[in-house]
Amino acid sequence: MSQSRIEWTDSTWNPVTGCTKASSGCLHCYAEAMTRRLKAMGVAKYANGFEVTVHEESLSEPLKWRKPRNIFVCSMSDLFHKDVPFEFVDDVINTIVKTPQHRYQILTKRAERMAEYFSTRQVPENVWLGVTVDVVQSKSRIDYLRKIEGAGIKFLSCEPLLEDLGELNLKGIDWVIVGGESGNQARPMKREWAVSIKQQCDSAGNTFFFKQWGTWGADGIKRSKGKNGKQLDGEVFHSFPD
Fold first, then answer.
1. Mean pLDDT of the chain
2. Do the Cβ atoms of 211 and 240 come closer than 8 Å?
């Protein structure tokens, strides 16, 4: 586990590493690029590169963290990838149950498999469940998330936001994160796409979090993500659900 620079979490925990591309948002996967660097540096955990690998030795890491924090589970993978056995997911959940002082944020692009898993298991009280919705085609993931019973918080990550998502059914959704893509090959996000989601969140009473513009600014100019900043129409929206 490590401290995270991701604005909507405090720490990351990676009992699984490696993944495969599931949608257009995966095209320039930051985790894949980071894995290549870590493998080249000789970090043992990433010796298999971006091949899906479970790490039993990492299961106990959160037990060492006493101070409560938000923990993003599998920032370098997807817990519900088909190559991660449900038995190992059980082990991950067991660690979560043993550490009720933390809040665990589980985000997946495999919403159908997540729904299958929790159809026969209870969602721990300290788990937030989310799905990535980056293009219109991925909106169906919201329905799978909505049907899961027991999650204290359900959220959407619209990052990287690659097109206008149109109307969103936000019933049963608590939190929506929006952000643009970063990196030399990043695709631009348009202001009106983000504003549309913000307006829908306001109307539905959902909490809205604008993470960043990424490599392309609100003015359509490519520059460093630091210079493009985190403001949407002059304001910073870094709100968390209760």
1. 96
2. no
The β-bridge relationship of strands 2-3 and 11-13 is antiparallel
Q: Please state the pTM of the whole predicted model.
A: 0.96
51-107 confidence digits (pLDDT tens): 999 999 999 999 999 999 999 999 999 999 999 999 999 999 999 999 999 999 999
Q: Are 178 and 198 in contact (CB under 8 A)?
A: yes
Is pLDDT of 3 > 80? no
The Cβ of residue 179 has, within 10 Å, a number of other Cβ atoms equal to 24
**Exposure of 24 by Cβ count < 10 A (0-12 exposed, 13-18 middle, 19+ buried)?**
middle
State the pLDDT at residue 215.
97
Query: 135 burial class (0-12, 13-18, 19+ CB within 10 angstroms)?
Result: middle
The whole-angstrom separation of Cα 31 and Cα 37 is 10
Please, is 118 exposed, middle or buried when counting C-beta atoms within 10 Å of its C-beta (0-12, 13-18, 19+)? buried
- Residue from 218, 220, 170 nearest 194 by CA: 218
User: Which residues, listed in sequence order, are joined to residue 154 by a DSSP beta bridge?
Assistant: 129
In terms of DSSP bridges, do strands 153-158 and 127-132 run parallel, antiparallel, or are they unpaired? parallel
66, burial (CB in 10 Å: exposed 0-12, middle 13-18, buried 19+): exposed
